[in-house]
């Protein structure tokens, strides 16, 4: 009976509808439960609520319709500012966007067959001619509207006005259901996908020729049995158009740098996860992440490490650059987000880290890194831990690098260099076991008081902040050597590409930095990963692209290492290129080891030092890494101050069994004289720890 039919909701009830967030990366209308609305301007249309952050995922999913592949363009867009309406409607919007299938709404099928080029036919929509699109117009009426709700800015109301890809007669007008489209490009999407566009643009930016790109593409198409979609029809003209874009692109959109950056942000909103413009009271902040970077962060960051490389170019760039890095299976660092800010990055980290974390978890709610590495102890650790829901480790790569390079520059006696470097490492790491770590620093300065040049540098650059670092070492576990080498390689590569002399006139402009990062620099990393994963263009890869020392160390055979277990003061590693040459490593097994190879003598972390760290750890023939000792002691200290943060407590619980065995191993090493004794209060704590955790 009619009285028992379900009543359609009115537009006033839309906020009571469930917010739908399909778990897949991209989703379409078939993944959503639609509701027909009664009355109002949208009467009879299908509506649904989704998170506003997932609108792009919906548009991409709708474009991948198997029966009617399409490309939805923005037909019209309107925006309002918050506070502009005193009494907004329930469906009132902050942003209004109309998406229309690119095969419509005009229909040139008949006109072109009658008039040839159809030059005398006026478009039906009144928008004037669409250069380059006339051949695609087949009268498709499929379109939908997206409203970012005024009263609920985090939600988007999708109003699907016409879900079928049909013309005004109701017949299919493109895709496999359209008989007239069979055997033509109208069977497929009208344009190449963003993924292919990114691929071709990256190849062009790294210098691959048009002929090589076309030849490579044809090989791929033939490999999967011929064309199956629009991407397979990539033409030389498509590549020429993109080549023209690359050639004519410029960082300077406006003579004024600030205006130029604003224009870039407006044109590339899809790449910006946070933007705060200059003001009297607020600093400039720009957070950038491309779709490819987001994919890498989701892939390698989940159950992996995410590291901060902060304040690069503090002296040369207008505003320093910070980078978030993830590490692949070879521990090579890949940039997955860039942050440019006019203030110290640690001061305003909460502003941009929240939208970044939301952006990631919108794609994958289960995403969670194993640890987050910070290279500055002044960062807001609690904000990082809360938003990324993982433990936070302190990374000392730039401290080690700065001290080592200064020693090489200011101290000419190699033996003194080794002793000073060893004492500096101990002064930093002893903060966990020495009641007053600053006394150790003071003792170091007195012992080597005659090294005036280095001491002047140390007092000026590091002494004012040494207490901050000591407190950071006491409160945070310390990262091991794996990421140190990868971060250092990224740092050197960034320095090489940005700070060459031909760019010196652009260092003071933020728009140049943004343009360079998102075009040339981004393309280098995309291309390197693509070449490694597929094997294509291996002969064209840039030989200067960094391969970090950790990855290189894994390829040094154990037989090339000469380690006297009775004398652990030094070790030797035989060169793989020249077996008559052996490099000497002093203080092996420590993060503050020194090697006499040319790469290490430049102040870098070399593969020989890391190879010894791996070997010593595996054989347990030298003191475990200082970071490992500090980390174990940090876990034990949890008993004195039980954490309020459940993430930290969960981490301690999960590692309790392994920690028990590790501590037994440490005690055996200590009994053999290979490990400094732990503080006297550790053993009673250890017993209580495992009673509570088990």
Automatic annotation (TrEMBL):
Under InterPro entries, the record lists: Znf_SWIM (IPR007527)
> In which domain of life is the source organism classified?
Eukaryota
The record, for PROSITE patterns, names: ZF_SWIM
Which keywords annotate this record?
Answer: Metal-binding, Zinc, Zinc-finger
Q: One Pfam match, by short name?
A: SWIM
Q: Any idea where the SWIM-type domain is?
A: 583-617
Q: Does the keyword Repressor apply?
A: no
Region annotation (Disordered) ranges: 111-132
Record's PANTHER family?
SWIM-TYPE DOMAIN-CONTAINING PROTEIN, ZINC ION BINDING PROTEIN
- By what name is this protein known? SWIM-type domain-containing protein
Starting at the broadest rank, the lineage of the source organism is: Eukaryota, Viridiplantae, Streptophyta, Embryophyta, Tracheophyta
């Amino acid at each position: 009976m009619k009285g028992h039919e379900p009543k359609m909701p009115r537009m006033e009830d839309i906020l009571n509808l469930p917010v739908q967030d399909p778990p897949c990366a991209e989703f379409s209308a078939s993944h959503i439960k639609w509701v027909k609305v009664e009355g109002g301007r949208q009467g009879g249309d299908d509506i649904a609520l989704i998170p506003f952050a997932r609108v792009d995922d919906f548009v991409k999913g709708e474009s991948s319709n198997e029966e009617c592949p399409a490309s939805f363009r923005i037909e019209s867009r309107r925006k309002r500012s918050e506070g502009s309406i005193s009494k907004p409607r329930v469906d009132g919007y902050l942003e209004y966007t109309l998406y229309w299938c690119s095969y419509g709404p005009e229909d040139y099928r008949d006109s072109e067959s009658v008039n040839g080029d159809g030059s005398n036919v006026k478009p039906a929509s009144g928008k004037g001619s669409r250069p380059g699109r006339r051949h695609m117009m087949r009268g498709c009426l499929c379109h939908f509207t997206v409203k970012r709700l005024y009263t609920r800015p985090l939600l988007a109301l999708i109003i699907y006005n016409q879900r079928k890809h049909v013309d005004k007669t109701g017949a299919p007008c493109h895709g496999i259901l359209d008989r007239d489209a069979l055997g033509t490009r109208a069977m497929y999407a009208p344009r190449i996908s963003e993924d292919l566009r990114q691929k071709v643009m990256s190849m062009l930016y790294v210098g691959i020729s048009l002929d090589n790109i076309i030849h490579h593409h044809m090989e791929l198409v033939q490999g999967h049995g011929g064309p199956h979609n629009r991407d397979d029809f990539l033409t030389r003209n498509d590549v020429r158009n993109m080549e023209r874009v690359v050639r004519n692109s410029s960082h300077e959109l406006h003579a004024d740098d600030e205006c130029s950056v604003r224009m870039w942000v407006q044109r590339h909103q899809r790449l910006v996860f946070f933007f705060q413009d200059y003001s009297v009271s607020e600093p400039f902040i720009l957070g950038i992440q491309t779709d490819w970077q987001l994919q890498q962060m989701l892939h390698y960051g989940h159950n992996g490490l995410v590291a901060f490389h902060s304040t690069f170019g503090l002296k040369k760039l207008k505003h320093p650059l910070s980078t978030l890095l993830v590490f692949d299976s070879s521990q090579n660092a890949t940039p997955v987000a860039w942050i440019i800010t006019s203030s110290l990055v640690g001061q305003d980290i909460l502003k941009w880290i929240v939208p970044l974390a939301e952006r990631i978890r919108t794609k994958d709610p289960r995403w969670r890194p194993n640890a987050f590495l910070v290279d500055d102890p002044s960062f807001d650790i609690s904000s990082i831990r809360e938003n990324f829901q993982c433990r936070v480790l302190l990374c000392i790569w730039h401290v080690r690098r700065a001290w080592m390079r200064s020693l090489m520059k200011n101290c000419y006696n190699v033996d003194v260099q080794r002793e000073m470097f060893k004492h500096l490492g101990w002064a930093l790491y002893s903060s966990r076991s020495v009641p007053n770590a600053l006394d150790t620093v003071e003792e170091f300065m007195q012992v080597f008081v005659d090294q005036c040049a280095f001491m002047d540098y140390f007092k000026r650059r590091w002494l004012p902040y040494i207490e901050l670092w000591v407190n950071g070492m006491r409160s945070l576990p310390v990262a091991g050597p794996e990421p140190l080498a990868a971060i250092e390689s990224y740092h050197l590569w960034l320095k090489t590409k940005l700070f060459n002399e031909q760019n010196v006139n652009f260092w003071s402009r933020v728009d140049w930095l943004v343009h360079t990062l998102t075009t040339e620099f981004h393309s280098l990393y995309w291309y390197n990963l693509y070449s490694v994963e597929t094997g294509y263009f291996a002969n064209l890869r840039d030989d200067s692209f960094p391969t970090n020392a950790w990855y290189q160390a894994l390829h040094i055979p154990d037989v090339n290492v000469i380690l006297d277990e009775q004398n652990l003061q030094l070790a030797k590693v035989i060169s793989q290129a020249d077996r008559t040459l052996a490099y000497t490593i002093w203080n092996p097994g420590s993060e503050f080891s020194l090697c006499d190879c040319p790469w290490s003598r430049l102040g870098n972390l070399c593969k020989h030092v890391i190879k010894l760290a791996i070997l010593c750890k595996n054989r347990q023939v030298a003191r475990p890494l200082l970071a490992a000792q500090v980390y174990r002691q940090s876990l034990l200290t949890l008993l004195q101050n039980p954490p309020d943060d459940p993430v930290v407590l969960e981490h301690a619980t999960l590692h309790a069994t392994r920690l028990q065995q590790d501590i037994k191993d440490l005690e055996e090493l200590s009994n053999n004289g290979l490990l400094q004794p732990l503080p006297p209060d550790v053993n009673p704590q250890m017993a209580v720890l495992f009673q509570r955790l088990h």
